[in-house]
Design brief:
177 residues; mainly alpha; two-stranded antiparallel ribbon; 66% helix; 2% strand
């Protein structure tokens, strides 16, 4: 049941008292509406703040994930380079060896590994077949030692030179040297 002017007139109150009751009731209703609106505004503000906190937390988690992935990529590139320098020539071997390395234990100094030997030494022990060492060899000599005579040299020799070296030439022609 609502408190209305019609209801109050039916109760038989005089007009002066009726006006005071209506005015007091209006002030009470207005105060209650203001209080209700204030609580509503506070609830919306808390809800927005809560939503902002959730969004900020999700953003911070995403940012941390992206930074970790970027750092892991830099670590992987540095490890690839260190494994190549250590003698792992095949890319497939490098990929397999990288799977056995805990990236959390790898430290970077700029773009290079800080503890490269500590990381690669256990791999060399366990997977020595994957590491190769290059050995450089010189080219074999083109001229035979000792100045021996070849068949090609005979065509360029004079008769006197053939006579002077007849023993070597006869051995060459008979299939000796």
């Amino acid at each position: 049941m609502a408190l209305t002017r019609k209801f109050l007139e039916e109760t038989g109150l005089n007009k002066e008292v009726l006006e005071k009751i209506i005015q007091a009731h209006g002030e009470t209703v207005d105060a209650l509406k203001k209080e209700r609106d204030e609580w509503k505004r506070r609830a919306e503000a808390e809800e927005q703040a809560s939503g902002r906190a959730e969004v900020q937390a999700a953003f911070d988690a995403y940012r941390a994930q992206v930074e970790k992935e970027r750092l892991d990529g830099r670590k992987t590139a540095a490890l690839q380079k260190a494994l190549t320098e250590a003698g792992v020539a095949r890319a497939g071997f490098r990929e397999l060896l990288l799977r056995g390395i805990d990236l959390a234990k790898v430290e970077l100094d700029g773009e290079n590994l800080k503890n490269a030997e500590a990381v690669i030494a256990p791999l060399k022990e366990n997977y020595a077949d994957c590491f190769s060492t290059l050995q450089t060899q010189g080219t074999p000599p083109l001229d035979p030692p000792g100045g021996a005579i070849r068949k090609a040299d005979l065509r360029q020799m004079s008769a006197q030179e053939i006579n002077d070296n007849w023993e070597e030439i006869s051995a060459l022609l008979s299939g000796g040297k």
